[in-house]
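Objective 1b. Sequence-to-structure analysis of Cupin domain-containing protein.
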Amino acid sequence: MSIQHIPQTGDSAQLDELGPVGIPLSDPACTLRASKIVIPGAEATSAGIWECTPGQFRREVQEGEIMHILAGSGTFTPDGQPPLQFRAGDTLAMPPGTQGVWHIHATVRKLYVLAAATSK
């Protein structure tokens, strides 16, 4: 197995166009670009680079997520909790089942890893 090197992740233009977010709350809807990172031997792990243009939308992901913000800024408001502002350089860890509203102020690019909930 070889190490994958993604140079200048914060600036790379090598992302696939994914179209608008699934549950937009703004007009125009935020648009997404992303590139999945596949780790040989750990294919069940979902990771990649994700980018979103300004606007608002509901979080649809059910898995837990660790993300490092590479560029941009915004606010995430978890359901029933106060808003959390974030910007480039911040790292967020969301437990499985976290729901809420993203408000992207300046185009956000993040490195993410999704983790399924463990059964007890």
